[in-house]
Amino acid sequence: MLGKLQKEFDSLNNLLERTLDFAGNLSNDKLHQSPKGVWSAAQIIYHLKESEKGTLMYLEKKIQSPKAEVAKGGISSKIRSFMLSRALRNYNKKFKAPSILGEMPEKPNFTEVRSEYLEVRKKMGLLLEKFDKDMLGRAYFKHPRAGRITILQTLEFLNDHLERHEDQIIERSS
């Protein structure tokens, strides 16, 4: 894996491990506690898994395209990625989950979701192995709100997304 990708992927893996460890130490009641009609910790982790799974599926398909058919990232993707990152770090801003992620189960089984999430993450690592230097500047992912962004920007998004929800998990389980 390219060094830049490895660094971002390692950071993402460390954050996921920390989040899953925290959630794994919660009681079943705390995992499924849903204050004020918002998602429980288990539902948030389910959402994160589904989001990353969707990202992986999109990237697996897009990576099969000839490089020349994949738009270059450029300044516009940098701006979109920056704006997305800022929005995700604004905890007062609410986002509606994209409908493509499907319905939210009432009480997801944490053990199953954790196992599925780790499998998705493993597959993401294998996919990242396929990226070469020429592919880094191309916008392989199309975020539902931000539009086309590069693979490094995609990993940054996944990190920001996970950080945002990690804070929610901690807050809602106290």
UniProtKB/TrEMBL annotation:
This is DinB family protein. Pfam families: DinB_2. Gene3D superfamilies: dinb family like domain. It comes from Cryomorpha ignava. SUPFAM superfamilies: DinB/YfiT-like putative metalloenzymes. Residues 16-169 form the DinB-like domain. InterPro entries: DinB-like (IPR024775), DinB/YfiT-like (IPR034660).
